[in-house]
Amino acid sequence: MAGHLLKNCAAVIVDEGNGPTVRRNVDLLTDGPAIRAIGENLSAAPLPAGTTVQDADGWFVYPGLVNTHHHFFQCFVRNRADLDWTKLSVIEWLDRIYPIFSQLTEDCFYHSSVTAMAELIKHGCTTAFDHQYNFPRHAGKRLVDRQFEAADLLGMRFHAGRGGNTLPKSEGSTIPDAMLETTDEFIADCARLIDAYHDAGPFSMRQVVVAPCQPVNCYRETFVESVALARDRGVFLHTHVGEGESPVIAARHGKRTVDYLEELGFAGPDAFYAHCWELTHDELRTMAASGTGVSHCPEPVYLVGAEVTDIPAMAAFGLRVGIGCDGAASNDNSNLMHCLHSAYMLQCLVASTRKHPVPAPADFLGYGTTGGASLLGRADIGRLAPGMAADLFAIDTRRTDYVGTRHDPLSLLPRVGIGMATDMTMINGRIVWQDGAFPGLDEAKLAADAEAALATVQF
């Protein structure tokens, strides 16, 4: 793979392991999948053979964003008035949405993954974790395989969360029988995917996470066996926690969700939970002590109407925090860059009600980059520095949108917000989006194929 020289970047967010700094008027050189150098006038020295030189005047160059929670398949239920959270109770919404989910075909899962990943890439995301917990019996077991196929098509660095649900609705879950699996089925397919796809090496483009959907929709044994498999194979663990289910878990098991999962061993530096908005400060301290991380999904707060997650307390207690889009059932877009802005602004909205101060805007950029990399156990992504993966995106700031903002690139995304696609996104040293196009791909055909798959679903 040849390299790229981005010449005379207006600003590059550099982090050599001691926190981000802004370097002005420098070049950035990639070589294969990695960053080779960041500095002034790099073109004066001989460049590696095949290096493409690109004028980056006016560009702010950022580390690629890391999405730590999503449900790609839900892209097929966006912008639907009949599924409006504001007009339905949660139970009514679940009863209406899950029968739709259970109709999806294997092709639906592939095309929804292409749709979500394409939008993520357009807005600076270079690594995506997806929590794929929907396995309708008629659709078969190769749904995550098709997601890896979609990631290969677009050049996305992909961490697949193999989810599943095992508890029947008759025993207290919200899952229709058509979407249920046994624990043995779930664990066997997790093991198959790990064997087929998981790559723990440097610059890995494919990893697998064992991710039972949520404690309220699974048997205890499902979580016990998940821990055993993940620890045996050296992969990470993920689930939903703190979405209002803690009283239910307490009624079933005698303790709230965080303590329940701690008891099962589903916690630690190799585990991260999505949401966590209902957790007490004591529970957050428990998670911090075990090293368990949090994927904060800010935009569902708008639709679901839940309380704003206490990110200031998490920061004060030393929790590892990343940012996630969440699925289109509770966030109708796959724009992680916009989520950084939402995350910061929501904290400002409730600042007067919180014990701890709102973290600085630049910290929210960190949650979307180094924070996400930490949740996924990656030391090779999330920062721009020599030797790190060449995952980055560029914004040409020579537009009226950025007048008055260019003095502080670190705060630009969280505080001001970016309403347009990037000018360029690079993953693993390959340009996957530039000048409004996916190189080598016909976006109109991708969209038409996805719409055709969507048309097979009966709402």
From TrEMBL:
Q: Locate the Amidohydrolase-related domain: which residues?
A: 60-432
Q: Which residues form a coiled coil?
A: none
> Is-annotated flag, keyword Hydrolase?
yes
GO MF assignments: hydrolase activity, acting on carbon-nitrogen (but not peptide) bonds
Q: Which UniProt keywords apply?
A: Hydrolase
For this protein, the parts annotated as crossing the membrane are: none
Q: Does the keyword Cytoplasm apply?
A: no
Show the SUPFAM superfamilies listed in the entry.
Composite domain of metallo-dependent hydrolases (SSF51338), Metallo-dependent hydrolases (SSF51556)
The UniProt entry, under InterPro entries, shows: Amidohydro-rel, Metal-dep_hydrolase_composite, Metal_Hydrolase, MTA/SAH_deaminase
Going by the entry's taxonomy, the superkingdom of the source organism is recorded as Bacteria
Q: Which family does it belong to?
A: Belongs to the metallo-dependent hydrolases superfamily. ATZ/TRZ family.
Can you say what this protein is called? Amidohydrolase family protein
Lineage of the organism: Bacteria, Pseudomonadati, Pseudomonadota, Alphaproteobacteria, Hyphomicrobiales
